[in-house]
């Protein structure tokens, strides 16, 4: 976690209190909402150099996407509240942009560390279901998140999970595949690592890696480079057939030694057979055969899913952020149907 900053005003209604993390393109602060004493918001502060090309398209894209998503008030998407900006003149001109979001107490990475003995199976099931509901909603809006990982998943004291940080998200055109390199390495899908075109299935692969991590309490595929990450994926899944290898990849399958698949049951102990069947469908090498977020959320693994309140265990000196209680939202909705 970044070191706390002194209070710095942003716009007219918020005051930064503490740096709580960093996103794809900026630093995130916990801030007082001056207009509502006792309330907090999250500020994503971005300092943008302005040149002859104007504001980078990635920044404009994020603002447009969060505005679009907030109209639906989906319970598994972080709420976007406001945007403010200030010009900074000097030898170089900069624009300081602040995106204002609802404040959520903790991200999933910190939450996992609070359970050194492992998460209860009911909590894993509930968290994964909520993540899939959020991802399915994004995909129904033709948006691919591109950077799903525990630090980008927020969880409130009431147990509500929200997808955050849309700095790398893009609108998906079914007539034109995406090609930009995205996704944090250890949650990156095979098609992205192989420099192939890709679509919404990249998010499902990332959720599969997160699912396994919630059971294992450590990352499933901790690669140290793109080559090493591919090797770890092939060690897990075995050598794919030529038909499964992306045709537009510049990397040839002959570049890798042939190998059999590993036993996923041994790598993810404690996950019941129904959960393993879902995980296997999410971690399929060929993106065209990978389960969709919509179908994954309807998998039998989630049948009769309990809805326990997720209570925070003792802090264990992790500098957790305290906040007033947040009312629980209804999380029993079904995923948004794809069109």
Question: According to CATH, what is the topology of the largest domain?
Answer: Transferase(Phosphotransferase), domain 1
Q: What is the helix content? A: 25-40%
User: What is the CA-CA span between the terminal residues?
Assistant: 40 Å
Question: CATH superfamily membership of the largest domain, which one?
Answer: Transferase(Phosphotransferase) domain 1
Radius of gyration: 20 Å
Q: What is the average per-residue confidence, as pLDDT, rounded to a whole number? A: 82
Shape: globular
Sheet of most strands: 6 strands, antiparallel
What CATH architecture of the largest domain would you give? Orthogonal Bundle
Concise synopsis of the structure shown:
Keywords: ATP-binding, Kinase, Nucleotide-binding, Serine/threonine-protein kinase, Transferase. Pfam families: Pkinase. This protein has about 350 residues and is of the alpha+beta class.
What do you see in this structure?
This protein has two domains: 8-102, Phosphorylase Kinase, domain 1; 107-302, Transferase(Phosphotransferase) domain 1 (Transferase(Phosphotransferase), domain 1, Orthogonal Bundle). The protein is 27% helix and 17% strand. It contains nine helices and eleven strands. The strands form three sheets. Strands 1-2-3-4-6-5 form a six-stranded antiparallel beta sheet, with helices on one face. It has a three-stranded antiparallel beta sheet with strand order 7-9-10. A hairpin with a 6-residue loop joins strand 3 and strand 4 (40-49). The longest helix has 20 residues, at 121-140. It is globular and about 60 Å long. The two termini are 40 Å apart.
